[in-house]
Amino acid sequence: MTELLLTAENIGLTIRGNPILHNVNLRVAAGEIVALIGPNGAGKSTLVRVLLGLLRPDSGRVWSRPGLRIGYMPQRLALDGTLPLSVQRFVTLGTPAARARVQAVLAEVGAAHVLDSPVQAVSGGELQRVMLARALLREPDLLVLDEPIQGVDLNGQYELYDLIGGLRRTHGCGMLMVSHELHLVMATTDHVLCLNRHVCCSGHPDHVARDPAYLDLFGIDGARRLAVYHHHHNHHHDLHGAVMPDLPLPSASGGEGSHRPFVEQDHG
Amino acid sequence: MDDFLARALLGGVGVALAAGPLGAFIVWRRMAYFGDTLAHSGLLGIVLGTVLNLNLQLGVAITCLVVALVLVLLQRQRRLATDTLLGILAHTTLSLGLVALAFLETVRVDLTAYLFGDILAIGPIDLYWIWGGALLALGALAGLWRPLLAITVHEELAQVEGVPVFPVRLAFMLLVAIVIAVAMKVVGILLITSLLIIPAAAARRFARSPEGMALLASGLGCAAVGLGLWASLRWDTPAGPSVVLAAAFLFVLSSMVPGRSWR
After folding, report:
1. Crossing angle for the helix pair B124-153 and B3-28, nearest 10 degrees?
2. Which residues of B touch A95 (CB under 8 A)?
3. Count of alpha carbons within 13 Å of A162, Cβ hemisphere only?
4. In chain B, how many H helices and how many E strands?
5. Which residue among B200, B201, B262 sits closest to A118, beta carbon to beta carbon?
6. Is the separation of the CB atoms in B7 and B79 below 8 Å?
7. 0.90 exceeded by pTM
8. Which CATH number is A1-69+140-268's, of 3.40.50.880, 3.40.50.300, 3.20.20.30, 1.10.3720.10?
9. Cβ separation B156–A74 shorter than 8 A
10. What are the extents of the domains in chain A?
11. ipTM field
Protein backbone atom coordinates (compact mmCIF):
# COMPACT_ATOMS: atom_id res chain seq x y z
CA MET A 1 0.00 0.00 0.00
CA THR A 2 1.27 3.50 -0.82
CA GLU A 3 2.34 5.78 1.95
CA LEU A 4 -0.28 8.15 3.30
CA LEU A 5 0.51 11.87 3.34
CA LEU A 6 -2.54 13.40 4.91
CA THR A 7 -5.74 12.11 6.43
CA ALA A 8 -8.79 13.76 7.89
CA GLU A 9 -11.33 11.89 9.95
CA ASN A 10 -14.87 12.93 10.74
CA ILE A 11 -14.19 16.63 10.35
CA GLY A 12 -17.02 18.79 11.62
CA LEU A 13 -17.09 22.56 11.74
CA THR A 14 -19.76 25.09 12.57
CA ILE A 15 -19.15 28.79 12.07
CA ARG A 16 -21.52 31.21 13.79
CA GLY A 17 -24.25 28.61 13.97
CA ASN A 18 -23.89 27.56 10.34
CA PRO A 19 -22.76 23.99 9.87
CA ILE A 20 -20.02 24.28 7.26
CA LEU A 21 -18.55 20.79 7.36
CA HIS A 22 -20.15 17.62 8.59
CA ASN A 23 -18.41 14.32 9.07
CA VAL A 24 -15.87 14.74 6.29
CA ASN A 25 -13.26 12.05 5.67
CA LEU A 26 -10.40 12.44 3.26
CA ARG A 27 -7.02 10.91 2.57
CA VAL A 28 -4.21 11.70 0.18
CA ALA A 29 -1.50 9.14 -0.53
CA ALA A 30 1.96 9.81 -1.92
CA GLY A 31 1.84 10.58 -5.64
CA GLU A 32 -1.94 10.59 -5.68
CA ILE A 33 -4.09 13.36 -7.12
CA VAL A 34 -7.25 14.01 -5.17
CA ALA A 35 -9.77 16.53 -6.42
CA LEU A 36 -12.19 18.26 -4.13
CA ILE A 37 -15.18 19.46 -6.08
CA GLY A 38 -18.46 21.03 -5.13
CA PRO A 39 -20.55 24.12 -5.75
CA ASN A 40 -19.72 27.53 -4.36
CA GLY A 41 -20.29 27.65 -0.63
CA ALA A 42 -19.86 23.90 -0.27
CA GLY A 43 -17.07 24.38 2.26
CA LYS A 44 -14.19 23.40 -0.03
CA SER A 45 -11.91 26.23 0.95
CA THR A 46 -12.85 25.82 4.59
CA LEU A 47 -11.93 22.15 4.43
CA VAL A 48 -8.60 23.04 2.84
CA ARG A 49 -7.91 25.52 5.62
CA VAL A 50 -8.69 22.83 8.18
CA LEU A 51 -6.37 20.39 6.41
CA LEU A 52 -3.58 22.96 6.35
CA GLY A 53 -3.95 23.62 10.06
CA LEU A 54 -5.13 27.18 9.52
CA LEU A 55 -8.49 26.48 11.09
CA ARG A 56 -9.37 24.19 13.97
CA PRO A 57 -12.28 21.87 13.37
CA ASP A 58 -14.93 21.47 16.08
CA SER A 59 -14.66 17.73 15.80
CA GLY A 60 -12.57 15.12 14.08
CA ARG A 61 -8.84 15.09 13.52
CA VAL A 62 -6.30 15.85 10.85
CA TRP A 63 -3.15 13.79 10.59
CA SER A 64 -0.19 14.52 8.38
CA ARG A 65 2.92 12.44 7.88
CA PRO A 66 5.65 13.76 10.18
CA GLY A 67 7.89 16.18 8.28
CA LEU A 68 5.41 16.54 5.44
CA ARG A 69 6.32 19.45 3.18
CA ILE A 70 3.28 21.17 1.79
CA GLY A 71 3.32 23.52 -1.17
CA TYR A 72 0.22 25.67 -0.96
CA MET A 73 -1.30 27.72 -3.71
CA PRO A 74 -3.97 29.96 -2.21
CA GLN A 75 -7.08 31.01 -4.02
CA ARG A 76 -6.17 34.65 -4.30
CA LEU A 77 -3.48 37.16 -3.59
CA ALA A 78 -4.50 40.62 -2.43
CA LEU A 79 -1.24 42.49 -2.50
CA ASP A 80 -1.18 46.16 -1.69
CA GLY A 81 -0.08 48.25 -4.66
CA THR A 82 2.36 50.16 -2.48
CA LEU A 83 4.59 47.15 -1.85
CA PRO A 84 7.37 47.10 -4.43
CA LEU A 85 7.88 43.38 -4.83
CA SER A 86 9.28 41.62 -7.88
CA VAL A 87 8.13 38.17 -8.88
CA GLN A 88 11.54 36.80 -7.92
CA ARG A 89 11.24 38.19 -4.41
CA PHE A 90 7.68 36.91 -4.11
CA VAL A 91 8.60 33.39 -5.14
CA THR A 92 11.52 33.22 -2.70
CA LEU A 93 9.66 34.69 0.28
CA GLY A 94 8.96 31.25 1.69
CA THR A 95 12.09 29.48 0.45
CA PRO A 96 15.35 31.32 -0.16
CA ALA A 97 16.77 30.29 -3.53
CA ALA A 98 19.32 31.47 -6.06
CA ARG A 99 18.13 33.43 -9.06
CA ALA A 100 18.95 30.62 -11.49
CA ARG A 101 16.83 28.18 -9.52
CA VAL A 102 13.91 30.62 -9.41
CA GLN A 103 14.25 31.11 -13.13
CA ALA A 104 14.19 27.36 -13.70
CA VAL A 105 11.05 26.86 -11.62
CA LEU A 106 9.32 29.77 -13.32
CA ALA A 107 10.30 28.34 -16.70
CA GLU A 108 8.79 25.01 -15.71
CA VAL A 109 5.41 26.64 -15.13
CA GLY A 110 5.78 28.82 -18.23
CA ALA A 111 6.30 32.15 -16.49
CA ALA A 112 10.04 32.77 -16.86
CA HIS A 113 9.42 36.06 -18.62
CA VAL A 114 7.93 37.73 -15.53
CA LEU A 115 10.93 37.04 -13.25
CA ASP A 116 11.67 40.72 -12.71
CA SER A 117 8.17 42.13 -13.11
CA PRO A 118 6.37 43.62 -10.14
CA VAL A 119 3.90 41.07 -8.77
CA GLN A 120 1.09 43.59 -9.19
CA ALA A 121 1.82 43.93 -12.90
CA VAL A 122 1.42 40.31 -14.03
CA SER A 123 -1.85 39.00 -15.49
CA GLY A 124 -4.25 36.68 -13.67
CA GLY A 125 -3.00 33.58 -15.47
CA GLU A 126 0.63 34.53 -14.91
CA LEU A 127 -0.03 35.12 -11.24
CA GLN A 128 -1.48 31.61 -10.88
CA ARG A 129 1.68 30.23 -12.46
CA VAL A 130 3.87 32.37 -10.24
CA MET A 131 2.07 31.13 -7.14
CA LEU A 132 2.45 27.56 -8.39
CA ALA A 133 6.17 28.21 -8.83
CA ARG A 134 6.42 29.41 -5.23
CA ALA A 135 4.76 26.20 -4.07
CA LEU A 136 7.05 24.05 -6.24
CA LEU A 137 10.18 25.80 -5.02
CA ARG A 138 9.60 24.13 -1.65
CA GLU A 139 9.96 20.72 -3.30
CA PRO A 140 6.74 19.66 -1.65
CA ASP A 141 5.57 16.14 -0.86
CA LEU A 142 2.04 17.44 -1.19
CA LEU A 143 0.72 20.25 -3.35
CA VAL A 144 -2.47 21.90 -2.18
CA LEU A 145 -4.08 23.97 -4.93
CA ASP A 146 -7.15 26.01 -4.12
CA GLU A 147 -9.03 26.79 -7.34
CA PRO A 148 -5.80 26.98 -9.36
CA ILE A 149 -7.53 28.15 -12.54
CA GLN A 150 -9.28 31.16 -11.09
CA GLY A 151 -9.00 34.24 -13.22
CA VAL A 152 -7.62 32.27 -16.15
CA ASP A 153 -9.29 32.29 -19.56
CA LEU A 154 -10.68 29.07 -20.98
CA ASN A 155 -7.70 28.07 -23.12
CA GLY A 156 -5.38 28.86 -20.25
CA GLN A 157 -7.44 26.65 -17.95
CA TYR A 158 -6.78 23.50 -19.96
CA GLU A 159 -3.12 24.45 -20.31
CA LEU A 160 -2.81 24.96 -16.60
CA TYR A 161 -4.48 21.63 -15.84
CA ASP A 162 -2.15 19.87 -18.24
CA LEU A 163 0.74 21.52 -16.48
CA ILE A 164 -0.56 20.55 -13.04
CA GLY A 165 -1.29 17.00 -14.15
CA GLY A 166 2.29 16.67 -15.36
CA LEU A 167 3.72 17.79 -12.04
CA ARG A 168 3.02 14.43 -10.45
CA ARG A 169 5.33 12.82 -12.96
CA THR A 170 8.06 15.44 -12.76
CA HIS A 171 7.97 16.09 -9.03
CA GLY A 172 6.44 12.91 -7.67
CA CYS A 173 4.27 14.81 -5.26
CA GLY A 174 0.76 14.06 -4.10
CA MET A 175 -1.85 16.65 -4.89
CA LEU A 176 -5.02 17.97 -3.40
CA MET A 177 -6.85 20.17 -5.83
CA VAL A 178 -9.94 22.23 -5.22
CA SER A 179 -12.22 22.98 -8.11
CA HIS A 180 -15.85 23.67 -8.70
CA GLU A 181 -15.96 21.68 -11.92
CA LEU A 182 -15.34 18.02 -12.43
CA HIS A 183 -14.94 17.83 -16.19
CA LEU A 184 -11.80 19.94 -16.08
CA VAL A 185 -10.04 17.80 -13.50
CA MET A 186 -11.20 14.40 -14.72
CA ALA A 187 -8.31 13.49 -16.98
CA THR A 188 -5.61 13.58 -14.35
CA THR A 189 -7.39 12.79 -11.11
CA ASP A 190 -7.21 9.51 -9.19
CA HIS A 191 -9.85 10.24 -6.66
CA VAL A 192 -12.69 12.73 -6.53
CA LEU A 193 -14.44 13.95 -3.44
CA CYS A 194 -17.70 15.67 -4.09
CA LEU A 195 -18.35 18.02 -1.22
CA ASN A 196 -21.43 19.90 -0.20
CA ARG A 197 -20.78 20.42 3.50
CA HIS A 198 -20.56 16.66 3.72
CA VAL A 199 -19.04 14.21 1.28
CA CYS A 200 -21.84 13.59 -1.22
CA CYS A 201 -19.95 10.96 -3.12
CA SER A 202 -16.40 9.98 -3.77
CA GLY A 203 -14.34 7.67 -5.87
CA HIS A 204 -12.76 7.48 -9.30
CA PRO A 205 -13.82 10.39 -11.55
CA ASP A 206 -15.72 8.08 -13.91
CA HIS A 207 -17.61 6.68 -11.00
CA VAL A 208 -18.37 10.06 -9.47
CA ALA A 209 -19.49 11.45 -12.81
CA ARG A 210 -22.25 8.85 -12.87
CA ASP A 211 -23.14 9.13 -9.21
CA PRO A 212 -26.66 10.48 -8.71
CA ALA A 213 -25.51 12.59 -5.80
CA TYR A 214 -23.05 14.32 -8.12
CA LEU A 215 -25.64 14.79 -10.83
CA ASP A 216 -28.03 16.15 -8.28
CA LEU A 217 -25.47 18.55 -6.91
CA PHE A 218 -24.41 19.97 -10.24
CA GLY A 219 -27.82 20.05 -11.82
CA ILE A 220 -29.01 19.66 -15.38
CA ASP A 221 -25.94 21.17 -17.03
CA GLY A 222 -23.66 18.72 -15.36
CA ALA A 223 -26.01 15.85 -16.09
CA ARG A 224 -26.18 16.71 -19.75
CA ARG A 225 -22.45 16.75 -20.00
CA LEU A 226 -21.93 13.33 -18.51
CA ALA A 227 -23.47 9.90 -18.62
CA VAL A 228 -26.68 9.73 -16.63
CA TYR A 229 -28.48 7.23 -14.62
CA HIS A 230 -30.66 7.75 -11.60
CA HIS A 231 -31.47 5.78 -8.56
CA HIS A 232 -32.70 6.62 -5.15
CA HIS A 233 -30.36 8.23 -2.66
CA ASN A 234 -30.74 9.50 0.84
CA HIS A 235 -30.87 13.24 0.36
CA HIS A 236 -31.29 16.03 -2.12
CA HIS A 237 -30.33 19.71 -2.12
CA ASP A 238 -32.65 22.66 -1.93
CA LEU A 239 -32.28 25.90 -3.87
CA HIS A 240 -29.73 27.12 -1.36
CA GLY A 241 -27.57 24.09 -1.78
CA ALA A 242 -28.41 22.95 1.72
CA VAL A 243 -28.87 19.26 2.38
CA MET A 244 -32.49 18.23 2.56
CA PRO A 245 -32.40 14.76 4.07
CA ASP A 246 -34.88 12.09 3.15
CA LEU A 247 -33.86 10.61 6.49
CA PRO A 248 -33.61 12.85 9.55
CA LEU A 249 -30.13 14.39 9.78
CA PRO A 250 -28.81 17.29 11.86
CA SER A 251 -30.20 20.48 10.37
CA ALA A 252 -27.96 21.86 7.70
CA SER A 253 -29.73 24.98 6.55
CA GLY A 254 -27.57 28.05 6.28
CA GLY A 255 -27.77 31.59 5.00
CA GLU A 256 -25.03 31.33 2.43
CA GLY A 257 -26.92 32.63 -0.56
CA SER A 258 -27.94 30.64 -3.56
CA HIS A 259 -25.53 28.41 -5.41
CA ARG A 260 -25.80 28.30 -9.13
CA PRO A 261 -23.87 25.44 -10.60
CA PHE A 262 -21.16 26.43 -13.07
CA VAL A 263 -21.50 30.10 -12.38
CA GLU A 264 -18.44 31.76 -10.99
CA GLN A 265 -19.11 33.60 -7.79
CA ASP A 266 -16.96 35.43 -5.38
CA HIS A 267 -16.32 33.15 -2.46
CA GLY A 268 -13.59 33.51 0.04
CA MET B 1 24.26 75.72 16.51
CA ASP B 2 22.44 76.08 19.79
CA ASP B 3 22.39 73.07 22.06
CA PHE B 4 18.65 72.74 22.11
CA LEU B 5 18.54 72.88 18.34
CA ALA B 6 21.22 70.21 17.99
CA ARG B 7 19.30 67.98 20.40
CA ALA B 8 16.06 68.62 18.51
CA LEU B 9 17.69 67.64 15.24
CA LEU B 10 19.38 64.60 16.71
CA GLY B 11 16.17 63.42 18.39
CA GLY B 12 14.09 64.03 15.29
CA VAL B 13 16.54 62.16 13.09
CA GLY B 14 16.54 59.20 15.51
CA VAL B 15 12.78 58.97 15.35
CA ALA B 16 12.67 59.43 11.57
CA LEU B 17 15.22 56.64 11.03
CA ALA B 18 13.08 54.12 12.90
CA ALA B 19 9.77 55.48 11.58
CA GLY B 20 10.79 54.96 7.94
CA PRO B 21 10.94 51.14 7.72
CA LEU B 22 8.19 50.65 10.29
CA GLY B 23 6.01 53.15 8.46
CA ALA B 24 6.60 51.26 5.22
CA PHE B 25 5.15 48.13 6.82
CA ILE B 26 2.23 50.12 8.18
CA VAL B 27 1.50 51.35 4.66
CA TRP B 28 1.88 47.89 3.08
CA ARG B 29 -0.27 46.27 5.75
CA ARG B 30 -2.86 49.08 5.54
CA MET B 31 -2.56 49.70 9.24
CA ALA B 32 -2.52 53.50 9.28
CA TYR B 33 -5.58 53.69 11.45
CA PHE B 34 -4.12 51.08 13.77
CA GLY B 35 -1.03 53.23 14.34
CA ASP B 36 -3.24 56.22 14.95
CA THR B 37 -5.26 54.32 17.54
CA LEU B 38 -2.17 53.24 19.44
CA ALA B 39 -0.87 56.78 19.38
CA HIS B 40 -4.16 58.13 20.75
CA SER B 41 -3.81 55.85 23.74
CA GLY B 42 -0.42 57.42 24.45
CA LEU B 43 -1.91 60.09 26.69
CA LEU B 44 -3.17 57.36 28.98
CA GLY B 45 0.41 56.14 29.09
CA ILE B 46 1.57 59.56 30.24
CA VAL B 47 -0.88 59.40 33.13
CA LEU B 48 0.18 55.86 33.94
CA GLY B 49 3.85 56.84 33.87
CA THR B 50 3.21 59.85 36.11
CA VAL B 51 1.13 57.93 38.64
CA LEU B 52 3.50 54.98 38.82
CA ASN B 53 6.51 57.26 38.71
CA LEU B 54 7.81 55.47 35.62
CA ASN B 55 9.64 56.94 32.71
CA LEU B 56 6.90 58.49 30.60
CA GLN B 57 8.06 56.86 27.38
CA LEU B 58 8.00 53.50 29.06
CA GLY B 59 4.47 54.23 30.27
CA VAL B 60 3.40 55.12 26.73
CA ALA B 61 4.98 52.01 25.21
CA ILE B 62 3.28 49.75 27.78
CA THR B 63 -0.11 51.39 27.28
CA CYS B 64 0.16 51.14 23.49
CA LEU B 65 1.00 47.48 23.78
CA VAL B 66 -1.95 46.78 26.08
CA VAL B 67 -4.30 48.57 23.67
CA ALA B 68 -2.86 46.52 20.81
CA LEU B 69 -3.54 43.31 22.74
CA VAL B 70 -7.10 44.41 23.56
CA LEU B 71 -7.61 45.04 19.87
CA VAL B 72 -6.35 41.56 18.98
CA LEU B 73 -8.77 40.03 21.49
CA LEU B 74 -11.70 42.08 20.20
CA GLN B 75 -10.82 41.17 16.60
CA ARG B 76 -10.99 37.50 17.46
CA GLN B 77 -14.62 37.85 18.44
CA ARG B 78 -15.40 39.09 14.93
CA ARG B 79 -18.44 40.98 16.06
CA LEU B 80 -17.44 44.34 14.58
CA ALA B 81 -15.29 45.43 11.69
CA THR B 82 -11.73 46.32 12.63
CA ASP B 83 -12.02 49.98 11.68
CA THR B 84 -15.05 50.34 13.93
CA LEU B 85 -13.15 48.74 16.79
CA LEU B 86 -10.20 51.03 16.13
CA GLY B 87 -12.44 54.09 16.16
CA ILE B 88 -13.93 53.02 19.48
CA LEU B 89 -10.54 52.29 21.03
CA ALA B 90 -8.83 55.42 19.71
CA HIS B 91 -11.28 57.89 21.11
CA THR B 92 -12.10 56.00 24.27
CA THR B 93 -8.45 55.82 25.26
CA LEU B 94 -7.78 59.44 24.29
CA SER B 95 -10.75 60.64 26.33
CA LEU B 96 -9.80 58.37 29.19
CA GLY B 97 -6.33 59.88 29.11
CA LEU B 98 -7.72 63.43 29.16
CA VAL B 99 -10.09 62.65 32.04
CA ALA B 100 -7.45 60.82 34.03
CA LEU B 101 -5.08 63.72 33.49
CA ALA B 102 -7.60 66.05 35.06
CA PHE B 103 -7.49 63.95 38.23
CA LEU B 104 -3.75 64.47 38.59
CA GLU B 105 -4.16 67.77 40.41
CA THR B 106 -0.69 67.76 41.84
CA VAL B 107 0.95 67.56 38.45
CA ARG B 108 1.02 70.40 36.00
CA VAL B 109 0.95 68.92 32.56
CA ASP B 110 1.53 70.77 29.34
CA LEU B 111 -1.13 69.07 27.27
CA THR B 112 -0.14 70.75 24.02
CA ALA B 113 3.36 69.35 24.30
CA TYR B 114 2.02 65.81 24.50
CA LEU B 115 -0.60 66.26 21.80
CA PHE B 116 1.59 68.06 19.26
CA GLY B 117 5.12 67.44 20.42
CA ASP B 118 7.80 69.57 21.96
CA ILE B 119 10.86 68.79 19.92
CA LEU B 120 12.75 71.92 21.02
CA ALA B 121 12.52 70.78 24.64
CA ILE B 122 14.28 67.47 24.05
CA GLY B 123 16.84 66.98 26.82
CA PRO B 124 19.94 64.79 26.95
CA ILE B 125 18.02 62.03 28.79
CA ASP B 126 15.30 62.14 26.14
CA LEU B 127 17.96 61.63 23.52
CA TYR B 128 19.12 58.43 25.20
CA TRP B 129 15.56 57.12 25.24
CA ILE B 130 14.88 58.14 21.66
CA TRP B 131 18.05 56.61 20.24
CA GLY B 132 17.84 53.57 22.48
CA GLY B 133 14.26 52.94 21.42
CA ALA B 134 14.93 53.68 17.76
CA LEU B 135 17.97 51.40 17.55
CA LEU B 136 16.12 48.65 19.41
CA ALA B 137 13.18 48.93 17.01
CA LEU B 138 15.43 48.97 13.94
CA GLY B 139 17.46 45.98 15.14
CA ALA B 140 14.37 43.96 15.95
CA LEU B 141 12.79 44.90 12.64
CA ALA B 142 15.87 43.74 10.77
CA GLY B 143 15.57 40.37 12.50
CA LEU B 144 11.84 40.18 11.79
CA TRP B 145 12.14 41.43 8.24
CA ARG B 146 11.70 38.24 6.26
CA PRO B 147 8.83 36.63 8.18
CA LEU B 148 7.10 39.99 8.52
CA LEU B 149 7.33 40.58 4.79
CA ALA B 150 6.00 37.07 4.17
CA ILE B 151 2.90 37.57 6.34
CA THR B 152 2.36 41.00 4.81
CA VAL B 153 2.18 39.44 1.35
CA HIS B 154 -0.06 36.50 2.30
CA GLU B 155 -0.64 35.52 5.88
CA GLU B 156 -2.01 32.01 5.39
CA LEU B 157 0.55 31.11 2.76
CA ALA B 158 3.28 32.24 5.15
CA GLN B 159 1.76 30.14 7.92
CA VAL B 160 1.70 27.04 5.75
CA GLU B 161 5.34 27.75 4.92
CA GLY B 162 6.18 27.70 8.59
CA VAL B 163 6.13 31.36 9.69
CA PRO B 164 4.87 31.73 13.30
CA VAL B 165 2.28 34.30 12.27
CA PHE B 166 0.88 35.33 15.63
CA PRO B 167 4.23 35.91 17.39
CA VAL B 168 5.50 37.89 14.40
CA ARG B 169 2.39 40.05 14.36
CA LEU B 170 2.68 40.61 18.08
CA ALA B 171 6.35 41.57 17.79
CA PHE B 172 5.47 44.04 15.05
CA MET B 173 2.84 45.65 17.28
CA LEU B 174 5.44 45.93 20.03
CA LEU B 175 7.79 47.74 17.66
CA VAL B 176 5.04 50.15 16.63
CA ALA B 177 4.36 50.82 20.32
CA ILE B 178 8.05 51.54 20.94
CA VAL B 179 8.32 53.93 18.02
CA ILE B 180 5.17 55.75 19.07
CA ALA B 181 6.61 56.14 22.56
CA VAL B 182 9.85 57.64 21.31
CA ALA B 183 8.20 59.77 18.63
CA MET B 184 5.78 61.37 21.05
CA LYS B 185 8.31 63.94 22.20
CA VAL B 186 8.98 64.98 18.61
CA VAL B 187 5.56 65.36 17.00
CA GLY B 188 3.08 64.50 19.77
CA ILE B 189 0.54 61.71 19.90
CA LEU B 190 -1.90 63.30 17.46
CA LEU B 191 0.68 63.63 14.70
CA ILE B 192 2.81 60.51 15.14
CA THR B 193 1.11 58.50 12.42
CA SER B 194 2.03 61.13 9.87
CA LEU B 195 5.73 60.61 10.57
CA LEU B 196 5.24 56.89 9.99
CA ILE B 197 3.14 57.10 6.87
CA ILE B 198 4.00 60.22 4.89
CA PRO B 199 7.73 59.49 4.30
CA ALA B 200 6.90 55.90 3.34
CA ALA B 201 4.20 57.06 0.94
CA ALA B 202 6.58 59.61 -0.57
CA ALA B 203 9.24 56.92 -1.02
CA ARG B 204 6.90 54.59 -2.90
CA ARG B 205 7.39 56.00 -6.38
CA PHE B 206 11.14 55.68 -6.32
CA ALA B 207 11.50 52.27 -4.71
CA ARG B 208 12.10 49.03 -6.57
CA SER B 209 12.33 46.76 -3.56
CA PRO B 210 10.81 46.67 -0.06
CA GLU B 211 14.22 47.43 1.46
CA GLY B 212 14.76 50.35 -0.90
CA MET B 213 11.42 51.83 0.07
CA ALA B 214 12.19 51.45 3.78
CA LEU B 215 15.59 53.13 3.49
CA LEU B 216 14.26 55.92 1.34
CA ALA B 217 11.43 56.50 3.83
CA SER B 218 14.04 56.90 6.59
CA GLY B 219 15.95 59.39 4.47
CA LEU B 220 12.87 61.41 3.57
CA GLY B 221 11.82 61.41 7.23
CA CYS B 222 15.20 62.84 8.24
CA ALA B 223 14.91 65.46 5.53
CA ALA B 224 11.45 66.38 6.80
CA VAL B 225 12.80 66.81 10.33
CA GLY B 226 15.59 69.11 9.12
CA LEU B 227 13.31 71.09 6.85
CA GLY B 228 10.59 71.36 9.47
CA LEU B 229 12.96 72.59 12.16
CA TRP B 230 14.46 75.13 9.81
CA ALA B 231 11.00 76.41 8.85
CA SER B 232 10.00 76.52 12.49
CA LEU B 233 12.98 78.73 13.32
CA ARG B 234 12.63 80.85 10.22
CA TRP B 235 8.95 81.66 10.66
CA ASP B 236 8.55 80.95 14.35
CA THR B 237 5.98 78.20 13.76
CA PRO B 238 5.26 75.26 16.11
CA ALA B 239 8.01 72.71 15.50
CA GLY B 240 6.09 69.39 15.52
CA PRO B 241 3.43 70.45 13.00
CA SER B 242 6.14 72.11 10.90
CA VAL B 243 7.97 68.78 10.62
CA VAL B 244 4.73 67.09 9.53
CA LEU B 245 4.10 69.83 6.97
CA ALA B 246 7.63 69.43 5.66
CA ALA B 247 6.98 65.70 5.21
CA ALA B 248 3.74 66.47 3.40
CA PHE B 249 5.61 68.95 1.21
CA LEU B 250 8.14 66.27 0.29
CA PHE B 251 5.27 63.89 -0.47
CA VAL B 252 3.63 66.36 -2.83
CA LEU B 253 7.00 67.01 -4.44
CA SER B 254 7.59 63.28 -4.91
CA SER B 255 4.25 62.79 -6.61
CA MET B 256 5.03 65.56 -9.08
CA VAL B 257 8.33 64.06 -10.17
CA PRO B 258 7.71 62.22 -13.42
CA GLY B 259 8.78 58.64 -13.01
CA ARG B 260 8.02 55.05 -13.68
CA SER B 261 4.86 53.69 -12.24
CA TRP B 262 4.77 50.12 -10.96
CA ARG B 263 1.33 49.43 -12.16
Report:
1. 10
2. 161
3. 8
4. 12, 0
5. B262
6. no
7. no
8. 3.40.50.300
9. yes
10. 1-69+140-268, 82-139
11. 0.85
B159 inside 8 A of chain A by CB: yes
Which chain B residue lies closest to A83 (C-alpha atoms)? B28
**Distance from C-alpha of B237 to C-alpha of B228, rounded to nearest angstrom:** 9
Domain ranges within chain B, ordered by starting residue = 3-255
pLDDT tens string, chain B, 263 residues long: the values are 678 889 999 999 999 999 999 999 999 998 889 889 999 998 898 888 888 888 888 888 899 889 988 888 887 777 788 888 889 999 999 999 889 888 877 666 778 888 888 888 888 988 999 999 999 999 999 999 999 999 999 999 999 999 999 999 989 988 998 999 888 888 888 888 999 999 999 999 899 999 999 999 999 999 999 999 999 999 999 999 999 999 999 999 999 887 655 44
Q: B28 vs A83: CB contact, 8 Å cut-off?
A: yes
Q: Please check whether residue B213 touches A, CB under 8 A.
A: yes
Give the gap in angstroms from C-alpha B72 to the nearest C-alpha of chain A.
17
Helix (H) or strand (E) holding B37: helix B32-40
The 3-state DSSP class for residue A245 equals strand
We find that the CATH architecture of domain B3-255 is: Orthogonal Bundle (1.10)
User: Which A residues in the span 50-69 are in contact with B, Cβ-Cβ below 8 Å?
Assistant: 52-54
- Asked if the Cβ–Cβ distance from B30 to A80 is below 8 Å, we say yes
